[in-house]
């Protein structure tokens, strides 16, 4: 019997376009201890493995092609939206960093996390969105970099790209953990256009101790891995 992953695009725009692909896999005897290899074979920026789901709480682990992450926004938002789309009542996701709260707002699904839970990013603010779009990913090596510029500072709308060679991601289409960190640093709600046009939204909550990140998710289907 083959091993399958469900795939969704996370942080799509209002037309359902763009977004960051996510692999979702139920853990089993054939996956335990093989998560890193499976994530590498799948090749998405992140793959999330569901270890358990009961009473509205899901326990999961997240892997890039080269390492496990204690928390990431794109996989938790995508998993929450996928479970909700399947008719499941998902209220929390437990990952190694802690317990992530889940809520919906219209067609957006949000997760809540502490900014320090995610990877450490080198943030670089540029002068304009055009400067962000002109960046050569080859200029960023050996770290995790997030370059951004205001589209409309008053409205909290910005343009961003993320380069993560240190975690096996040359360029990430949409990065929830970076959005959470930046919103926490700036202390304000944000609308982020990242990559080719993915959309992320943040809300600063609990007096700035926590940040929500959310967006829209579109189902892609199921693929056989091996």
What does this protein look like?
This protein has helices at residues 35-42, 73-85, 129-134, 176-186; strands at 4-12, 20-26, 46-54, 57-63, 68-69, 92-95, 98-105, 108-113, 122-125, 145-152, 157-164, 169-172, 190-194, 198-205, 210-224. The protein is an alpha+beta fold. It has an eight-stranded mixed beta barrel with strand order 1-2-3-4-6-7-8-15. Helix 2 (73-85) crosses helix 4 (176-186). The mean pLDDT is 96.
Helix content: 10-25%
Instruction: Write down how many β-strands occur, each being a DSSP E stretch of 2 or more residues.
Output: 15
The CATH topology name of the largest domain reads: Diaminopimelate Epimerase, Chain A, domain 1
Biggest sheet layout: 8 strands, mixed, barrel
Spatial separation of the terminal alpha carbons: 9 Å
Total number of distinct structural domains:
2
User: What is the CA-based Rg, rounded?
Assistant: 16 Å
Secondary structure tally, helices:
4
**Order of secondary-structure elements:** EEHEEEHEEEEHEEEHEEE
Portion in strands:
over 45%
Strand order of the largest sheet: 1-2-3-4-6-7-8-15
Mean pLDDT: 96
Tertiary shape = globular
Q: Architecture of the largest domain, according to CATH?
A: Roll
CATH superfamily of the largest domain: Diaminopimelate Epimerase, Chain A, domain 1
**Unreliable stretches covering 5 or more consecutive residues:** none
Give the CATH level 1 class of the largest domain.
Alpha Beta
InterPro entries: Phenazine_PhzF-like
GO cellular component, one term: cytoplasm
Protein name: Putative PhzF superfamily epimerase YddE/YHI9
GO molecular function, one term: isomerase activity
């Amino acid at each position: 019997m083959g091993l399958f992953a469900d795939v969704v695009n996370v942080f799509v725009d209002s037309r359902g376009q763009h977004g960051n692909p996510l692999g979702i896999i139920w853990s089993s005897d054939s996956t335990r201890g093989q998560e890193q290899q499976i994530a590498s074979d799948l090749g998405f920026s992140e793959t999330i493995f569901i270890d358990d789901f009961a009473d509205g709480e899901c326990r999961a682990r997240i892997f890039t092609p080269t390492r496990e992450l204690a928390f990431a926004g794109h996989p938790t938002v995508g998993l929450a939206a996928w479970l909700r789309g399947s008719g499941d009542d998902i209220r929390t996701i437990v990952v190694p960093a802690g317990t992530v709260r889940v809520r919906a707002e219209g067609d957006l699904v949000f997760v809540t996390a502490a900014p320090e839970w995610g990877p450490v990013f080198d943030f670089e603010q540029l002068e304009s969105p055009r400067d962000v779009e002109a960046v050569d990913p080859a200029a960023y090596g050996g770290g995790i970099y997030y370059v951004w510029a205001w589209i409309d500072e008053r409205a909290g709308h910005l343009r961003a790209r993320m380069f993560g060679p240190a975690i096996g991601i040359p360029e990430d289409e949409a990065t929830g953990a970076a959005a959470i960190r930046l919103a926490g640093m700036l202390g304000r709600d944000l609308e982020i256009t990242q990559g080719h046009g993915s959309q992320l939204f943040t809300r600063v909550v609990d007096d700035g101790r926590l940040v929500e990140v959310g967006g829209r998710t579109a189902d892609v289907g199921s693929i056989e891995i091996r």
